[in-house]
Amino acid sequence: MTALLDQxxxxxxxxxxxxxxxxxxxxxxxxxxxxxxPLLRPRTVDEVSAIVRFCNELSVxxxxxxxxxxxxxxxVYDGDRPCIILSLERMNALRGIYPDxxxxxxxxxxxxxxxxxxxxxxxxxxxxSLAAEGSCRIGGNLATNAGxxxxxxxxxxxxxxxxxxxxxxxxxxxxxxxxxxxDNTGYDLRNLLIGSEGxxxxxxxxxxKLFPKPRxxxxxxxALENPAVAIDILGRLNTQLDGVISAFExxxxxxxxxxxxxxxxxxxxxxxxxxxxxLVQAASGTGSNVEARMMQALTTEIExxxxxxxxxxxxxxxxxxxWELRETIPEANRAIGAIASHDVSIPISRIPEFIETMPAVLxxxxxxxxxxxxxxxxxxxxxxxxxxxxxxxxxxxxxxxAFSAAIHDKVAALGGSISAEHGVGRLKARALLxxxxxxxxxxxxxxxxxxxxxxxxxxxxxxxxxx
Length: 467
Ligand SMILES: Cc1cc2nc3c(=O)[nH]c(=O)nc-3n(C[C@H](O)[C@H](O)[C@H](O)COP(=O)(O)OP(=O)(O)OC[C@H]3O[C@@H](n4cnc5c(N)ncnc54)[C@H](O)[C@@H]3O)c2cc1C
Known about the structure:
Layout: H1 2-12, E1 17-19, E2 38-40, H2 45-58, E3 61-65, E4 83-87, E5 94-98, E6 103-107, H3 112-121, E7 124-125, H4 138-143, H5 151-154, E8 161-167, E9 173-176, H6 189-193, E10 202-209, E11 211-212, E12 216-224, H7 227-240, E13 245-252, H8 253-262, E14 276-284, H9 290-303, E15 309-312, H10 316-336, E16 343-345, H11 351-363, E17 369-375, E18 380-386, H12 400-413, H13 429-435, H14 438-451
Parallel strand pairs: 2-4, 3-4
Antiparallel strand pairs: 1-2, 5-6, 6-10, 7-11, 8-9, 8-10, 12-14, 12-15, 13-14, 13-17, 16-18, 17-18
Bound molecules: flavin-adenine dinucleotide.
């Protein structure tokens, strides 16, 4: 490894090249750990191009690295092939903001929360929002096609991107940083690179869509009997509020209990923990009366008996407290230690069947606790399973694969996807071989071989070798 480090220092200098510290070698869930590797931190697209070209000549792997918050191990190569880690952290400039066009152009290393701040400073909204927004970076968000809590209204990262600048595996630069909303000039490299998780190239900058800032926001937490009721309510609220629902997040009993157990300082909103709850947010412009209309719609729901209890935020601080509860669930999960985590999407009308039938299927494999929560409005559930009280996740190491197979089999049977928003990375690359569409997998392999014949870009991620 030192020989590789010396080779890169000789080529690019000690300011750009160092040995990666531990922070770059692991990931949030602790499944993947990389051996020590050279870390390269370029400042310009030309430097990225030179590094990738050099790696291609030497057949050295390149693992692009954003904020390191990815949940499927895409940013951590744990194999034996010589590889470098390419961090975009120094490419963190706002290249331009065009409020009249509702567009901003940022480099890939910009932290998501900073990108939101740039838009805000120009009285615009950049709506991508997720709990890791203080650490994840725009390049990583696009590479994973991140979702988050406002997909229902604004779409995922792909929907928010107008163009990308990227370095392809041979070192060539794709100058696709257009600010155009219409551009039908053949194959769409931008859409190929978005969601490719670093397996086809390095995204170095992006032009992103901005939106008017909502002036009126209403946030409420509703206690409900079951997810089927939640889905009915979503349909009615959307009609009554003219489609301005921006978030509709499901929280199960375990979500409340896990947060109470691990973060007792976080205020529990209900005196009695509900079986299910949804966090609803509606947002619109001045004069839209969103708060009054939400109140009216929820009063009707309470009267018809579909809502058992409701907390309607009366201030920004109260709304933030409700969001804090929702966004703390992943942290509570990590503290308890999941046996296996799943990020699935299912056609919305079939979600109740999934949630009702899975516990009995899993109980046949082992005695576990389930924390099911997520972006119900997008049909996206985080379905994580935990050991019972007093046990440890390591006690279930032998059953882990069986739990995941049972969950993914059911998702596939219902016409769903085994990765809704986190991507494939290394964690799901083999599962994709089993659940992915054959023709799509063949096309993915052909594209990978055509663009990256030496397989330098993020080896073993997304496209797994067949047995
Ligand atoms: C607490 C928490 C909450 C989360 N919530 C959500 C959520 O609600 N929705 C959601 O979708 N995800 C969520 N995630 C997952 C994660 O935050 C996202 O996947 C995020 O988009 C990753 O960005 P990153 O900069 O951290 O990327 P990294 O983790 O550094 O990398 C992720 C992948 O992208 C590749 N990559 C990174 N930068 C580039 C680049 N410039 N060019 C090409 N490839 C690149 C890497 O090689 C890797 O394969 C959450 C994670 C955490 C820890």
